[in-house]
Amino acid sequence: MNDSLNKSLYFAWVTAIVATLGSLYFSEIAGFEPCKLCWIQRIFMYPLVLILGIACFRNDRVIAIYVLPLTIIGGCVSILHYSEQKLGLFEGTCTTGVPCSGEYINWLGFITIPLLALVAFVLITVFLWTGLRKR
């Protein structure tokens, strides 16, 4: 049982690392300039790499209580961003700089950067939630 708790924590950490590296790839290598909502999502994702990494090395499963608010709020921002892109809801969120409705990628007609961020936030939440429930 202890091993499955550790695995869920490690999976959450790896998900945060992959999401952060993907975000950095899109902005620093592909040259996609982040909009305001992208920056907000990054504010909630980037610290997770450090927090979950420390929790993994310290075997601290209680960290989920502190991390879940970050993943849930970050996920809500991702939903808002995706809704603006695909449904035209909440237009005008980004009034200066890069428009939040812009789509740098649109794989299969529905996979955009905010959806990728949402998937990462949901995965981290599920991994941590299952880790808490197994306690």
UniProtKB/TrEMBL annotation:
Q: How does it sit in the membrane?
A: Multi-pass membrane protein
Q: Which GO terms describe its molecular function?
A: protein-disulfide reductase activity
> By its UniProt entry, which InterPro entries does this protein fall under?
DiS_bond_form_DsbB/BdbC (IPR003752), Disulphide_bond_form_BdbC (IPR012187), DsbB-like_sf (IPR023380)
Q: Could you tell me which HAMAP family the record lists for this protein?
A: BdbC
Q: Which organism is it from?
A: Scopulibacillus darangshiensis
Write out the transmembrane intervals.
9-27, 39-57, 64-82, 107-129
Superkingdom of source: Bacteria
What are the recorded Gene Ontology BP terms?
A: protein folding
Q: Can you tell me which family this protein belongs to?
A: Belongs to the DsbB family. BdbC subfamily.
Key word Metal-binding present in the record?
no
* Compartments where found: Membrane
Which Gene Ontology cellular-component terms appear in the entry? membrane
Protein name (Swiss-Prot/TrEMBL): Disulfide bond formation protein DsbB
Tell me the classification of the organism that encodes this protein.
Bacteria, Bacillati, Bacillota, Bacilli, Bacillales
Q: Does the keyword Transmembrane apply?
A: yes
UniProt keywords (A-Z) are: Chaperone, Disulfide bond, Electron transport, Membrane, Oxidoreductase, Redox-active center, Transmembrane, Transmembrane helix, Transport
